[in-house]
Each structure stands twice: as C-alpha cells, then as structure tokens.
Amino acid sequence: MTARARNAVAALAIIAVSVFWYLEAGRFRELSRIFPRVIAVILGGLGVVLLVLTILGRGPKIIMAEGDSSQRHRRSGSLLAALVLWTALIPVTGLLAASLTGVAVMGLITFRAHRGTIRAIIIAAVSVVAFYFLFQFLLYVPFPLGFFG
Questions:
Q1: DSSP 8-state secondary structure symbol assigned to residue 68
Q2: DSSP for residue 114
Q3: Which of 1, 28, 92, 110 could form a disulfide with 32 if both were Cys (CB 3.0 to 4.6 A apart)?
Q4: pTM for the full predicted model
C-alpha cells in the first residue's frame, strides 16, 4: 500500500469515527453532548484536511517501521481494526473499560515490545483514567457506562 493510500484510508477512518460519535452524542443530555460533538467536529475536520492534502499529493510522508511490507500492512490494518473495535466497544462496555483496552491493544501493536512499551501504555492508561474521572466526576459529563451502568 502506498503512502497516499494509507493516508486516504486513515483519513476516511477518522472521518467515519467522527461522524459516528457526533451522531452518538445526540443520545446524551443537551449540555452533555456539546463536548463529544466539539471533539468529533475537530477530529472530522482534521480527517478532511488529511484527505484533501492526500488528494492534492501533499499529505504527510509516514516513515514506516522496520519489517517487510506485509508486516507493515498487517500492523497498519491491526491498528485500524483496533480503532474500530475500540469505538464499537464504547457503547457496550462503557468509555473507561473500552478506552483502557484500546490503549493497551494499540500500544502493543504500535510499539511491539520495544523498550519502554509497558511504561508508555501505563502512562496512557493513567491519562485515560484521569481524563475520565475529571469529566465524569468533577465536570459531571456523563460518559457511556455500557453494562457497568
């Protein structure tokens, strides 16, 4: 897969996830839907920018990690699948459980046991928990709880 194709696929995935969350936020209470919709619009806008730059031939040049092309494609596809799975799990398991699982899986796929992988995943998990508790309990922004709610 060429760099342009990877950029286009990534942009379309980002746009799709943004549209999903913009629509999903419609189920939240009136004031609670503002935050996820703002984030969805920002991410969707960035996805559109990436897609337009890619179409114009000015997209970013991503330097792929070592390994043959089939390994790189599997890893890229695995990351995209993990993103889709993370998004699909949120309404089922809730934001916190899905995000912790998603951070761990995407970290393992991305870093592939390189030095510092576990530390990076722990830092990301702590960030997810801090973000969740800040918004859920201090700012009273209700997140999907899934079967935990």
A1: -
A2: -
A3: 28
A4: 0.55
**What's the CA gap between 117 and 149, in Å, rounded?**
32
Spatial distance between the Cα atoms of 62 and 76, rounded to a whole number of angstroms: 12
Cα–Cα distance for residue pair 108/117, rounded to 1 Å: 7
- Residue 138's contacts (CB-CB under 8 Å, 6 or more residues apart) are none
- Token pair 């796929």 in the structure block, residue: 109
Q: Which of 134, 76, 136, 78 is nearest to 105 (CA)?
A: 78
Matching residue, tokens 């194709």: 5
Whole-number pLDDT of residue 68 = 63
- Does 121 have pLDDT greater than 90? no
Q: Which tokens sit at 95?
A: 């934001």
The first and second tokens of residue 131, run together, are 């973000």
Distance, first Cα to last Cα, the chain? 42
pLDDT at 67: 59
Contacts of 82 (CB under 8 A, 6+ apart): 102, 105, 106, 109
Length of the chain: 149
